[in-house]
Design goal:
about 290 residues, mainly alpha, 2 domains, 10 helices, about 75% helix
Length: about 290
Amino acid sequence: MKKRVFTGVIYAAILAVCIVLKVYLPPAFGSIAFDVFFFAATVIGAYEYLRAAKMRSILQYAIAFAYCIVVIPAYVLAKYMGITGQLVVIILFAIACFTLFVAFVYDNEHAAFEDVTKAMLCMLYVGVMGVILASCNHFDDEGNALASLMLLFVVTPLTDVMAFFVGSLLGRFFPKKIAPKLSPKKTLVGSIGGLLGGVLGALVVYYFFTEIFKKSIVCNINLPYVYIFVIIGVIASLFGQAGDLFESAIKRSFGVKDMGDLLPGHGGVLDRLDSTFFAGVVVYACFWAITAF
């Protein structure tokens, strides 16, 4: 527990520095810290995944790893050049998939089709999810970018904390499991506690965003900010918990307890960011939606 708390404090401190830089530096410089963070997390996460996957084909391994290395820098560079970053990501993914299939055909003696599917999942789960987090960092409006990042990195940890404490306190009285085979300790009451943590996290973000940082968002929906933040927080909390279960399924299929051991008490980078990846998808979608409609 001490190791987990210490690692969690260091992780929170790094994120706090990234947020402060995002708030107080000019946009071109304020985004760099989070870009570096997402790039490092994606590269390390890809290494953890591919090591846990125990792929037989070194070539398939290399193609998936190369995609995860280049995809965020390519996206960020495209954004700064005025090119549609998402298009670059899709083109790179198509090239990587084509290369995987070619490698499977011509390296059939050393590769199983299972290696192709593992490599593609790595590119989607780690590479594309990492780009989605980077996309939150590069919304056209800096207020939306800051709000999305704050929601991601406040809501998901508070969801985990509240799910743990509520599940520990009330799980014996309400023992209903949500996924007994994948995660025997997770209860329905703990999951509800996690959603309450999502609401609490959204309210904390709303207070700091509006009262401390004095920021605003671009929104075409006629709702008070606090409602928007809470709605997004609840959705992010729900999807974050789904992401945790998804990674549990991957780890079970790979036969490993943790994806890595870089973060004592937490496991690897993917063990720490599994819920953030899934939450990132809906947070990005929500902020895109409130400006598009």
